[in-house]
Amino acid sequence: MAMTPNQTVRPWGLSRMAPHCSVAPLEYATVTFDPETQLTHFHDAGGAIVDMQRGTVTTSQGGSDGSANSPKVADDSND
């Protein structure tokens, strides 16, 4: 198929895209960062801290020596 200089071609991937999902409203109005604790705090419109109720700590089986009974260890432990 020959193309003319002014012909635009729709990228193939655009034909495979689905419509965007609906966006949920934010649970917070502002975000602050405490440099001493390295924690981010989410605040509502009234200034109260919002509990985001989401953790990032996961546990995994410790050791890779084939030991079947090794204890579970937090991946982000400071030990």
What percentage of residues falls in helices of 4 or more residues?
under 10%
In total, the number of strands is: 4
Radius of gyration: 24 Å
Mean pLDDT score, rounded? Answer: 78
Helix run count: 0
How does the major sheet shape up? 2 strands, antiparallel
N-to-C SSE string, H for helix and E for strand? EEEE
User: Pairing-aware structural class of the strands and helices?
Assistant: mainly beta
Distance between the termini: 64 Å
Task: Pick out the low-confidence regions.
Answer: none
**What quaternary form is this?**
single chain
Largest beta sheet: strand ordering? 1-2
Basic shape: flat
User: Beta fraction of the residues?
Assistant: 15-25%
Write the layout of secondary structure elements.
Elements lengths: L29 E5 L4 E5 L15 E3 L10 E3 L5
Task: Please explain how this structure is put together.
The chain is an all-beta fold. Helix content is 0%, strand content 20%. The strands form 2 sheets. The chain has a two-stranded antiparallel ribbon. It has a two-stranded antiparallel ribbon with strand order 3-4. Strand 1 and strand 2 form a beta hairpin. The radius of gyration is 24 Å and the shape is flat. The mean pLDDT is 78.
